[in-house]
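Quick one:
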Amino acid sequence: MALDDLFLQIGELGRYQWYLVILASLGTTICPVSLFSQYFYTLHTPHWCAADNALNSTECALYGLDYAQCAEAQKNVTIPWTEEEGYAECEMYNTTGAESYSSYTNLSVIECQNGWVFDESETGRTLTTQYELVCDRENLIHLSQSLYFVGCLLGNAVYGTLSDRYGRLTSWAICIFQSLVFAVAILFTKTFWLYNVSRVLMGMANYALWIVPFVYLTEVVGHNKRMFVGLLVEFFWAGGYLLVTALSWVIRDWFYIQIIVVVYHVVLFPIVLLLCESPRWLLAVGKIDKAEEVVEKIAKRNGREMPKNYREDLQEEKKKIEEEAEAGHDVTPIEIFRNKTIFIWTVIMMVIWFAHGMTYWAITFISGDLGFNFYPSFFIQAAVEVPAYVFCIILLAYVGRRPPTVVFMLAAGILCLLAIPVPLGAWKAVVVFAAKFCISISFVIMFVYSTEIYPTCIRGFGVSILVNISIFGQIMAPVVMIIAKYWPPFPLVFGGLLSMLGGALASFLPETRGTMLPETMEEAASLGRDKQRIPSEDAAEVAL
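Output:
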């Protein structure tokens, strides 16, 4: 009896598994809360060059101006203004040598000489104002975000290995601790570069705080419920996304928001202590006694009886896993590149995953530049992911993998391009948010789709490559935003064309709905050609 057969007896998604799924899903929200917080820490804050007593107190008194009026008058006479752009943010008039306001004529324009004045009425205290990340230093904001994603890339490799060697919960606990330590460190950094070192080290743990619990969730339920819980956790991603947006909207002070992020880590840390270890991992590493304890606990909490001879069945399962592991040594990851069909599909999926990573985050980054207040804009584009995930469940259950991937990637690309000529304002936001809706659907589908294309012997390696390619896309997204300073449509053009390319290439992938997961390279290569299919269990997966 396989472990999946045992779950059929003791419950594939019973009361106790619901308890585990909800707690573990709550634990994943640390990732989006930590990740998206920096966007609010580095908001664009209106600013202009600080004037060095362009109007002295005597002149202000002469014109009957109080302190505030005098400051506004200095801004008016020292900062260039145009009807299209308003006050210049990085330039000022050169008043050197001018003895009084009356002599301010035919002044040359120069870069800011004495720092900047910031209007924090909308954004509150930000890192942008604290470290003066404006004008020629503005690109440091985007560089910082790219560095964070580099940390995510490193963490994906490190914690994936730790998770397989030392267990899901041990790896998870280390992740939370590392993220917590550097979340606290951020509060005490004195320079922007020290802040970035802490963010990179925090990022190493943050991404793993999504991946490790995600793997855990799929291992504590029966095979008919894996897709469902894999999609359910996406709603918690959206929840964390919305939570940090709402908090930032209300508080508007990066330091206090970061304190809440720290407290959030502390509150959710005990979740790891309330969970049981993955029975699949325990069985895979030969800890059969502990695996028995876990499945017995699941059965008891679900109100089910353990089947007879289940211990002997688990022993047989352990033996089978060991035999498969030994046989697997003959199949190395290099087989991905030796098998022509698998290689072509891998290249196609690499393009698709890169397109998703780049386009999803590029759309996220431009949400504050759509012609109205950043906070409601960011909140709405986060909220559109909730109906996207609902729709995704329906599509996977009743339509398949390939058609929705093709349609929604093409739709996202077309909408990105259509948004370019639309003037800033509500209609441009509607088109961009529709693109975010589409790319969110296809992104989630690819998580399911990719695992169904690779055979068991190289599935972990293959999916790991694709996830890393997606992170490379995320690293590139801030770079795209730097280019946008010189050509604003670039993020939508690049993201749109990439999405359309990915959608077109997806049409060459095989449909996997209703097929068994391939175990060998030969079975994987025959996907789409083998007409023998099993009755689809996808609809059953989403049924409670």
